[in-house]
Design brief:
Layout (H helix, E strand, L loop, with lengths): L13 E5 L2 H4 L12 H5 L18 H15 L3 E5 L2 H4 L9 H16 L3 E7 L5 H7 L6 H17 L5 E6 L1 H9 L11 H24 L5 E7 L3 E3 L4 H24 L4 H10 L9 H7 L5 E4 L4 E4 L24 E2 L3 E4 L5 E2 L5 E2 L1 H15 L3 E5 L17 H20 L3 E7 L18 E3 L11 E3 L1 H11 L6
Parallel strand pairs: 1-2, 1-14, 2-3, 3-4, 4-5, 5-7, 6-8, 7-13, 13-14
Antiparallel strand pairs: 8-10, 9-10, 11-12, 15-16
The structure holds 6-O-phosphono-beta-D-glucopyranose.
Length: about 475
């Protein structure tokens, strides 16, 4: 649909940007913080790019005031960050570590003082190692109670101050990468365990959302899903079915549960046939159906194009974590779909397809299927950036990427979607879990690299000023 004029962004649109504790904070053993599964995993040789870890990261823990001053100057309306569970409960439960909580209290107060809306992610992958050791973390239903208790502690601590809460960040990613591809902790390759873990995570998510509503918390809560909309490679019905399979197994399998409390039928049949379906106990369906998120958070980076894949076809292939274009391997689920190259879009150096139209499609599909407000909790471009001799970063490629995606949001709003806000990934440069520091996303360049000996100085990129003017005019000239 082409609109003659586009609808303006609402006046209270939340122009934001995001980060996650492990990727920015550093201070991994300070003020009583406990060990997380990531603190442990990065020490296994060969797991991360050039052995990078988040021990120091970009030292946000000690530099948050400087970072917030930069946000204020830019005019940022919202900042999404995650809380490290291990700072609040060093061993996952028990007594609150007051020093850890105090850090986030200062951070939230500083944001509010600067008129920036804090958005808190409760879980961005850094599970307390103690819970992994004690009961295998997400593999045990005990985590439902522990995660809910942790969340409740934060709800009460930030009641009236934090109005936007994200329950789980990219459950689809941490379960698949942790239990299927073994590239995230706990480094398992077992689909049966992955779907079991995922079901428990669904229950924990529902329990936390219900707790938020039971406590009559002022504000909104929802999960953040990494949504990669699926296309067929062409109109061959076999390929169209492959795309439907991918959408059911890779997207609806999470979003339907969040929004309706039900698993999609065809995907579940497939899992049953493989012997991978989760065990649904009495009361589970009721819990899933009772939880009603106030919005659906989406992290959007790319689309996927699909083709027919026979039962003896391609399985999971290697991801590109080197930044060498074209180094990712073919990937698929035999009997369901395989991913193929879309000839109509460009790719980044990490082989992520650049597709702003896909964001509009994502927003429209979600709007029609679930009729829910959407918060875009991540979107951005990971690329090599160069600091010039005069300390500038000319990232016009990032400006193009973001401008095209902002335009796609405006079009989706004109199509009827309700979008509460837009958080770019990321605010400052930060540690990419598997890609070190060479893959950068920020508006603010940080002098840090794989040697982890950078000065940690912050420099504003050209995209920083671009976003500043977008915010100022509320996206009017996009
Ligand atoms: C999302 C995560 O998957 O994408 C972020 O929520 C992550 O934590 C971002 O950094 C970009 O991914 P990557 O692999 O390029 O760092």
């Amino acid at each position: 649909m082409e609109h003659q004029t586009l609808t303006s962004f609402p006046n209270d649109f939340l122009w934001g940007s995001a980060s996650a504790a492990y990727q920015v904070e550093g201070a991994w053993q300070e003020d009583g913080k406990g060990e997380s599964v990531w603190d442990r995993f990065v020490r296994i040789p060969g797991k991360t790019f050039k052995g990078t870890n988040g021990d120091l990261a970009v030292d946000h823990y000690h530099r948050f005031q400087e970072d917030i001053a930069l946000m204020k100057e830019q005019g940022l309306k919202a900042y999404r960050f995650s809380i490290a569970w291990t700072r609040i409960f060093p061993t996952g439960r028990g007594e609150v570590n007051q020093a850890g909580l105090a850090f986030y209290q200062e951070l939230v107060d500083e944001l509010i003082k600067n008129d920036i809306e804090p958005m808190v992610t409760l879980y961005h992958w850094d599970l307390p190692q103690a819970l992994q050791d004690e009961y295998n973390g997400w593999e045990s239903r005990q985590i439902i109670e522990d995660f809910t208790k942790y969340a409740e502690t934060l709800f009460e601590a930030f009641r009236g101050k934090v109005h936007y809460w994200i329950s789980l960040n990219e459950q689809n990613v941490f379960t698949s990468l942790g239990y299927l591809l073994a590239v995230h902790p706990p480094g398992v390759t077992d689909p049966k365990r992955m779907y079991a873990v995922n079901h428990i995570a669904n229950l924990a998510n529902a329990s936390v959302i219900n707790k938020f509503h039971e406590l009559k918390m002022p504000g909104k809560i929802g999960p953040s899903f990494a949504y990669t909309p699926n296309y067929p490679i062409n109109s061959d019905p076999k390929n169209i079915l492959a795309a439907e399979n991918a959408e059911d197994l890779m997207a609806n399998y999470w979003m339907d549960v969040y929004m309706w409390g039900k698993y999609p039928i065809a995907a579940m049949k497939f899992l049953e046939e493989q012997g991978w379906a989760p065990t649904i106990e009495a009361g589970d369906e009721e819990l899933l159906e009772s939880a009603k998120p106030d919005f659906l958070g989406i992290n959007y980076y790319q689309t996927a194009t699909n083709a027919f894949n026979p039962l003896d076809g391609v399985g999971a292939g290697k991801m590109n974590t080197t930044g060498k274009k074209g180094s990712s391997e073919e990937t698929g689920v035999p009997g369901m779909y395989k991913k193929v190259e879309n000839p109509f879009v460009e790719r980044t150096n990490w082989d992520w397809e650049i597709d702003p139209e896909g964001l509009r499609i994502a927003l429209r599909r979600i709007t029609s299927r679930y009729r829910t407000p959407i918060l875009i909790t991540e979107n951005g471009l990971g690329e090599y950036d160069k600091l010039t001799d005069d300390k500038k970063i000319h990232d016009e490629y990032r400006i193009n990427y973001l401008a095209n995606h902002v335009k796609a949001i405006k079009e989706a709003i004109s199509d009827g979607a309700t979008v509460l806000g837009y958080c770019t990934w990321s605010y400052t440069d930060l540690l990419s879990w598997l890609n070190g520091y060479q893959k950068r996303y920020g508006f603010v360049y940080v002098d840090q690299d794989e040697t982890q000996e950078g000065s940690l100085e912050r420099y504003k990129k050209d995209s920083y000023y671009w976003y500043q003017s977008v915010i100022k005019e509320n996206g009017e000239s996009i």
